[in-house]
């Protein structure tokens, strides 16, 4: 069998290589950085681990099977993380008042009864939410939550891409968020060792170009895939270049224990509440072994706050301190603080992306796409995509 070249050693490229190699297909994996993981990485510091982007992964049957094969135990979230908050003049478990809640209930019942619940094509999250739940639910509930996760603006995010079809959980499948005990890098390192044991040729520090030959899986961001596919299909390159990327910053800070008076998993902040961040995660409450004191990660940026990328460290840290004062009424000096800037972090899941995906990217038969703009940004969706691509290649080669 001829070798398949996988470009990109982030989670997409690693899992696609894994499913190809376990199907008996020879694989060469190219990564332009000197490290694997792409957006995923964990820095071990004196105060505890610092995640560079993703800090957990939603459990699924496919993840469980992968980690069983990797012999990688995963830890589940701590009890302390059960409470999740949305901000409305303060952190709230439920941000709507009694009248607003009644309105949401009535609208929801009516839209379910009349079959109008499902998002329509080209409907934004704000449009769908106003139609099905009402304006305050968009502002304080759905819009705030999705903006915090996707970084996009509710009046641009595609409702059907985000609430679209999901695989039904399999019987006995564990739900909830999980992570490797030593942080997300353990998943990457374990995958790398597994790939080597399966005979995958991993080449780090090697940037692929558009002269690639043979069967290729492009597991990079959409703009990078656009450049790489240019000579194989100008049309596909043009479409990939249209996919907009959003900037995000993750600032992780360590404080003495007891510095968090709120507790829980974290808080998502709607815009116009006087808080600059999209959200904050209380890392030490979420998974065990995330530091001796209290660790928080503040997520900033996204579609409506691109300028934050221009701030230097001092200005960025002052911003976090200001948000903390607003949240807690005070802010202690951090014991240590680590900024991670991602100028092109995630694809913007807008109705424009929905339209582009609906029309199809039309890759040539020997070229496959496996990035986080195809099925979803979350790691479980990248696992699904890697599995699909490996299955398609296997089927094509058998026929
Ligand atoms: C702040 C933040 C928090 C997040 N939190 C979560 C979370 O908690 N849970 C979750 O499920 N998801 C989370 N995500 C999303 C998730 O981390 C990403 O969707 C995922 O890691 C993307 O992986 P990828 O392999 O598709 O892309 P990337 O990680 O971007 O990897 C692409 C790789 O391709 C390489 N590359 C590019 N061009 C070339 C070339 N020419 N030659 C060779 N190599 C090339 C790059 O160097 C890179 O390593 C988060 C994202 C961010 C930004």
Q: Your description of this structure?
A:
With 399 residues, the protein is of the alpha/beta class. The protein has 3 domains: 4-75 and 176-244 and 349-398, 3-Layer(bba) Sandwich (FAD/NAD(P)-binding domain); 96-163, protoporphyrinogen ix oxidase, domain 3 (Orthogonal Bundle), CATH 1.10.3110; 245-347, Alpha-Beta Complex (Polyamine Oxidase, Chain A, domain 2). The chain is built from 13 helices and 17 strands. It has helices spanning 11-21, 61-70, 98-113, 125-132, 135-150, 159-163, 185-197, 222-229, 234-241, 283-286, 313-328, 351-359, 379-398; strands spanning 4-7, 27-31, 42-45, 48-51, 57-58, 74-76, 84-87, 91-92, 177-180, 201-204, 216-218, 245-255, 266-268, 279-282, 294-301, 336-347, 367-369. A 7-stranded mixed beta sheet has the order 8-7-13-14-15-12-16. A 5-stranded parallel beta sheet has the order 10-2-1-11-17, with helices on both faces. It has a 3-stranded antiparallel beta sheet with strand order 5-9-6. Helix 4 (125-132) packs antiparallel against helix 5 and helix 8 packs antiparallel against helix 9 (234-241). The longest helix has 20 residues, at 379-398. Bound molecules: flavin-adenine dinucleotide (FAD). Flavin-adenine dinucleotide is lined by residues 7-13, 30-33, 38-40, 53-57, 207-208, 219-221, 224, 228, 248, 250, 299, 342, 345-346, 371-372, 377-379, 382.
Concise description?
This protein has 399 residues and is an alpha/beta fold.
């Amino acid at each position: 069998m001829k070798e398949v070249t996988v470009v990109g050693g982030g989670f997409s490229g690693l899992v696609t290589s894994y499913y190809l190699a376990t199907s008996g297909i020879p694989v060469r994996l190219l990564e332009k950085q000197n490290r694997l993981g792409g957006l995923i990485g964990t820095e071990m510091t004196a105060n505890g681990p610092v995640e560079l982007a993703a800090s957990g992964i939603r459990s699924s049957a496919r993840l469980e099977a992968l980690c069983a094969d990797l012999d990688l135990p995963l830890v589940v979230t701590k009890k302390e993380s059960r409470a999740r908050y949305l901000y409305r003049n303060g952190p709230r478990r439920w941000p709507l008042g009694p009248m607003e809640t009644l309105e949401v209930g009535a609208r929801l019942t009516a839209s379910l009864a009349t079959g109008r619940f499902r998002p329509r094509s080209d409907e934004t999250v704000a449009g769908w939410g106003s139609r099905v739940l009402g304006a305050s639910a968009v502002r304080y509930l759905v819009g705030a939550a999705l903006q915090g996760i996707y970084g996009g603006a509710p009046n641009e995010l595609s409702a059907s891409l985000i609430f679209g079809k999901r695989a039904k959980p399999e019987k006995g499948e564990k739900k909830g968020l999980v992570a490797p005990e030593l942080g997300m890098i353990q998943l990457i390192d374990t995958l790398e060792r597994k790939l080597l044991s399966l005979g995958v040729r991993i080449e780090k520090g090697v940037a692929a170009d558009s002269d690639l030959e043979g069967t290729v899986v492009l597991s990079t961001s959409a703009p990078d895939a656009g450049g790489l596919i240019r000579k194989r299909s100008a049309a596909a390159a043009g479409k990939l270049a249209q996919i907009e990327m959003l900037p995000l910053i993750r600032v992780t800070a360590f404080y003495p224990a007891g510095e968090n008076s709120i507790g829980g998993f974290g808080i998502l902040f709607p815009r116009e509440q006087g808080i600059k961040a999209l959200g904050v995660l209380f890392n030490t409450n979420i998974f065990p072994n995330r530091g001796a004191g209290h660790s928080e990660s503040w997520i900033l940026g996204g579609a409506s706050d691109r300028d934050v990328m221009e701030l230097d460290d001092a200005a960025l840290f002052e911003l976090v301190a200001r948000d903390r004062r607003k949240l807690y009424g005070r802010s202690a000096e951090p014991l240590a603080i680590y900024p991670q800037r991602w100028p092109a972090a995630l694809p913007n899941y807008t109705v424009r992306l929905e339209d582009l995906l609906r029309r199809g990217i039309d890759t040539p038969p020997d070229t496959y796409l496996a990035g986080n703009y195809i099925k979803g940004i979350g790691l479980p969706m990248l696992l699904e995509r890697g599995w699909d691509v490996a299955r398609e290649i296997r089927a094509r080669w058998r026929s």
